């Protein structure tokens, strides 16, 4: 089981109805509605469904899309599949472990990858980095 910095099933707890709708029903939250849009602390972003490590704050950036955005996922954290819903062709991003729907990835992100992982904030749990003892 992939865990990091407090991520894990026990750290996640029960899903809210909104999280169920996104992760299990392939829903989307309203743009600009996630408090994670404004999260600037160092840390990691885990799957709200199973606790798998998905993204690092080092890869987060403000894309202006209204959803938390990352230019890179953590190794083996996410998987993708073709999504032809809503009359368009996109690449869906889901948790590699529990297959919960996270959002979509687009080829219009910043260097070095050129990718924009546009992720529903309700599909994520943010875990701040542990502060060094000083």
Question: Would you mind describing this structure in some detail?
Answer:
The protein has helices at residues 9-12, 17-23, and strands spanning 43-47, 53-56, 60-61, 69-70, 78-83, 90-95, 101-106, 116-119, 124-128. The chain is mainly β. The strands form 2 sheets. Strands 3-4-8-7-6-5 form a 6-stranded antiparallel sheet, with no helix packed on it. Mean pLDDT is 89; it is low at 1-6.
Strand content: 25-35%
Mean pLDDT, to the nearest integer, reads: 89
> Helix share of residues?
under 10%
Q: Radius of gyration over alpha carbons?
A: 14 Å
**In total, how many beta strands?**
9
Task: Provide the succession of SSEs.
Answer: HHEEEEEEEEE
Give start-end ranges of low-pLDDT stretches. 1-6
By helix and strand content, what is the structural category? Answer: mainly beta
Shape verdict? globular
- Ends: how far apart? 31 Å
The largest pleated sheet is described as: 6 strands, antiparallel
Strand order of the largest sheet: 3-4-8-7-6-5
- Number of contiguous helices: 2
What topology emerges from the helices and strands here?
Elements: H1 9-12, H2 17-23, E1 43-47, E2 53-56, E3 60-61, E4 69-70, E5 78-83, E6 90-95, E7 101-106, E8 116-119, E9 124-128
Antiparallel strand pairs: 1-2, 1-9, 3-4, 4-8, 5-6, 6-7, 7-8
């Amino acid at each position: 089981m992939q865990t990091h910095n407090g991520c894990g099933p026990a750290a996640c707890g029960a899903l809210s109805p909104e999280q169920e709708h996104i992760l299990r029903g392939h829903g989307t939250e309203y743009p600009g509605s996630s408090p994670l849009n404004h999260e600037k602390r160092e840390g990691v972003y885990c799957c709200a469904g199973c606790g798998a490590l998905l993204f690092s704050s080092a890869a987060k950036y403000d894309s202006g899309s209204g959803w938390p955005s990352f230019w890179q996922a953590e190794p083996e954290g996410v998987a993708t599949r073709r999504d032809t819903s809503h009359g368009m062709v996109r690449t869906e991003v889901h948790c590699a472990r529990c297959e919960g729907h996270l959002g979509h990835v687009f080829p219009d992100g910043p260097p070095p990858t050129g990718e924009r992982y546009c992720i529903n904030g309700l599909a994520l749990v943010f875990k701040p980095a542990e502060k060094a003892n000083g």
